[in-house]
Amino acid sequence: MSEEPWYQDGLKFRCTGCGDCCTGAAGAVWVDEENLEKIAEHLDKPIGEIRLMHTRMLRGKISLTEFPNGDCTFFDGQTRSCKIYPVRPPQCKTWPFWKSNVSDEQAWQQTVKECPGSGTGDLIPLDEIEKRISVIDL
Ligand code: SF4
């Protein structure tokens, strides 16, 4: 018999657009060729330029890069918005519903501390949470 997850009644989330998850400490933002193609198309730039200016190899995989201040290189500091929002990587689309963030209530409380949109706003139902979690293993 499978046990229901602790978040079976859903979790709240509505992005406030603060930009905190696109800035700050350096980290990996995983992308694949398909993601890069979509980004290149969206920005109307050659994929080679996107690869050169916005990606690096990390632990054998492709990650987006940050500026020295930690901002994602696709983050517009003036408008505090994402330049590739409609085609942002799966990891950005599914935040904060990553396996690691919902592994237990303590992990979720930590996420709520880091992301002001988490724990508030729209109630995201269990099936939608599970769908987002299954997109990328984080
Ligand atoms: S930290 Fe949370 S509220 Fe702020 S931009 Fe990221 S997802 Fe939205």
Number of domains: 1
Terminal CA distance reads 26 Å
Instruction: Name the helix and strand elements from N-terminus to C-terminus, one letter apiece.
Output: EEHHEEEEHHEH
Give the CA-based shape: globular
Q: How are strands sequenced across the largest beta sheet?
A: 2-4-3
Structural description of this entry:
With 138 residues, this protein is an alpha+beta fold. The chain has helices at residues 33-43, 47-54, 90-94, 105-114, 126-133; strands at residues 11-13, 30-31, 55-58, 61-64, 75-76, 81-82, 122-124. The chain has one domain. It is 30% helix and 14% strand. It has a three-stranded antiparallel beta sheet. Strands 1-7 form a two-stranded antiparallel sheet. A two-stranded antiparallel sheet has the order 5-6. Helix 1 crosses helix 2 (47-54). The two termini are 26 Å apart. The structure holds iron/sulfur cluster (SF4). Residues 15-21, 95, 115-117 line the site of iron/sulfur cluster.
Secondary structure elements and their pairing?
Blueprint: E1 11-13, E2 30-31, H1 33-43, H2 47-54, E3 55-58, E4 61-64, E5 75-76, E6 81-82, H3 90-94, H4 105-114, E7 122-124, H5 126-133
Antiparallel strand pairs: 1-7, 2-4, 3-4, 5-6
Helix pairs in contact: 1-2
This protein binds iron/sulfur cluster.
Short note summarizing the structure:
The chain is an alpha+beta fold. It has helices spanning about 35-45, 45-55, 90-95, 105-115, 125-135; strands spanning about 10-15, 30, 55-60, 60-65, 75, 80, 120-125.
